[in-house]
Amino acid sequence: MTEPRPAPTSRPLGQPFDLTGKRVWVAGHRGLVGGAVVRRLAREDCAVLCVGREDLDLTRQQAVEAWMEANRPDAVVMAAALVGGIKANDRRSAEFIHQNLAVQTNIIHAAWQAGVGKVLFLGSSCIYPRDVAQPMREDALLSGPLEPTNQWYAIAKIAGIRMAQAYRRQYGCDYISAMPTNLYGPGDNFDLDGGHVLPALLRKIHEAKVEGRGEVVLWGSGAPLREFLYVDDLADALVFLLKAYSADDHINVGSGEEITIKALAETIAGVVGYEGRFVFDTTMPDGTPRKLMDSGRLAALGWRPATDLRSGIAATYRWFLDNAERLRQ
Ligand SMILES: NC(=O)C1=CN([C@@H]2O[C@H](COP(=O)(O)OP(=O)(O)OC[C@H]3O[C@@H](n4cnc5c(N)ncnc54)[C@H](OP(=O)(O)O)[C@@H]3O)[C@@H](O)[C@H]2O)C=CC1
Ligand SMILES: C[C@H]1O[C@H](OP(=O)(O)OP(=O)(O)OC[C@H]2O[C@@H](n3cnc4c(=O)[nH]c(N)nc43)[C@H](O)[C@@H]2O)[C@@H](O)[C@@H](O)C1=O
């Protein structure tokens, strides 16, 4: 068993973290969030470390410990996780709880062992109770039952928040947690079965237009409300937090823009140029009726998003069109 020891590079908690000259590991660099964080870090004076799944399976504890020891990053952004939309979360409960607990536990513990100075853990808005007061504040965590469709993933994410806090408390590590709202953007997962609503609807609506179909099927009632944040805005917020945030509490990262799923489909149709109608498959789950983040704490620190929903969807659609051939393979 590893003996507790202070992290060799540990700094006093509550201080800014200077990225200059640092080695930052973006775990999950090929994903939606990881890719955006790599793009954003290119504007900082730091070295970005990346390793693909083929060279490091993050569910393997010894491999993660060996990689961390060999590469000794100064900071880690944890953008690696098993992620999916409502159907994937609902149908693959064992994979979601197992892989997420394994990946995050391995990274946080190995970071502590290797003396990593700063770790940024990423959770999700689904950590909050299903019927919680809106907008959802950070202190609403664990105040009620979770949404059943994604509780397995949510439990793993809540464990990640507590793990970062525990390593702060016992070992004095500057490990922090950010909770993003629903994300979208270049590099998203456009898989119709496994992905989230925004990329799925972009693809469905685009294909209906190209094939001349008069209707598109939406899952559920179309009534649930979701808040969407453009992924490059998230990446900017994460770099901001990496540098400026050092506290026990997790912090929400949202856009403040809320929309029903039906209105989202109509907005996407406007961007794509589709004039057909929408029908609703109510055998599919709605999930949480509403999940709007209270991002007041982050705003008070001085950070705000830059991209409105329509512009973000237009940029994502351009990316989708540019990459459509590759996505089909
Ligand atoms: N997308 C969203 O709407 C939201 C995402 N988040 C959080 O943001 C983070 C990133 O999500 P997102 O970018 O959307 O997810 P993606 O699925 O786009 O990316 C996840 C990345 O993690 C990697 N990964 C997963 N498991 C392993 C493993 N065992 N070994 C090595 N690499 C692995 C994947 O590698 P590979 O490419 O090989 O599969 C991929 O690069 C997650 O923590 C998620 O919970 C939070 C709120 C909303
Ligand atoms: C980020 C967040 O993402 C997940 O939660 P979610 O927000 O419920 O996920 P979603 O994006 O898949 O769906 C949002 C809404 O949209 C409706 N909907 C309509 N038509 C399609 C459709 O075609 N695909 C999808 N996926 N949804 C559709 C769908 O029925 C639901 O009402 C978590 O599991 C968890 O991963 C998490 O934290």
Summarize the structure.
The chain folds into 2 domains: 23-184 and 228-253, 3-Layer(aba) Sandwich (Rossmann fold), CATH 3.40.50; 197-226 and 258-290 and 308-328, UDP-galactose 4-epimerase, domain 1, CATH 3.90.25. 41% of the residues lie in helices and 16% in strands. By secondary structure, it is α/β, with parallel strands linked by helices.
Kindly provide the radius of gyration, computed on alpha-carbon positions and rounded to a whole number of angstroms: 20 Å
Structural category is alpha/beta
Question: Could you tell me the strand content as a percent range?
Answer: 15-25%
Give, in spatial order, the strands making up the sheet with the most strands.
2-1-3-4-5-9
Q: Which CATH class of the largest domain applies here?
A: Alpha Beta
| CATH superfamily membership of the largest domain | NAD(P)-binding Rossmann-like Domain
- Number of individual domains: 2
- The appropriate CATH architecture of the largest domain is 3-Layer(aba) Sandwich
Instruction: Work out the helix count.
Output: 10
* Helix residue percentage: 40-55%
Low-pLDDT runs of 5+ residues are none
Q: Which fold name corresponds to the CATH topology of the largest domain?
A: Rossmann fold
Query: For the terminal residues, how far apart are their CA atoms?
Result: 46 Å
Total number of strands? 12
Largest sheet: 6 strands, parallel
Average pLDDT: 96
Hetero ligands: NADPH dihydro-nicotinamide-adenine-dinucleotide phosphate, the ligand C[C@H]1O[C@H](OP(=O)(O)OP(=O)(O)OC[C@H]2O[C@@H](n3cnc4c(=O)[nH]c(N)nc43)[C@H](O)[C@@H]2O)[C@@H](O)[C@@H](O)C1=O
Shape: globular
GO molecular function, one term: GDP-L-fucose synthase activity
Pathway: Nucleotide-sugar biosynthesis; GDP-L-fucose biosynthesis via de novo pathway; GDP-L-fucose from GDP-alpha-D-mannose: step 2/2
Family: Belongs to the NAD(P)-dependent epimerase/dehydratase family. Fucose synthase subfamily.
Binding site for substrate: 204, 219, 226, 286
